[in-house]
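batch_manifest entry 22 of 60
target: Holin
source organism: Nocardioides oceani
requested by: lab member K.T.
priority: normal
notes from requester: please return tokens only, no post-processing; we will run our own comparison against the previous entry in this batch. if the run fails, retry once and flag.
--- input ---
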Amino acid sequence: MNREPALTVGTVTAAVTAVLALLVAFGLDLTSEQQAAILGVVGVLAPIVATVITRTKVSPANTVVAQRTADGTVIAGEGAVVTAGIPVDVTVRR
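--- output ---
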């Protein structure tokens, strides 16, 4: 989930739907209206929870100073003082 925090909405909604169906199948006495109300609340809360989780795991593009590409090259990000997208030397000098 750390690599794809936005998957949270679908995961939470699917899990609640499955658990609800399982509980009803095993005898939990819920009317159709109650099931719909529960799923409605989950449908509203899941995106809010996902937003809060996602915001803690990502950075706005204009604050990224450097990033690593798929091939391992480190390039300047939009928050860098050099042109974004060019390779940069990230060697630490002391």
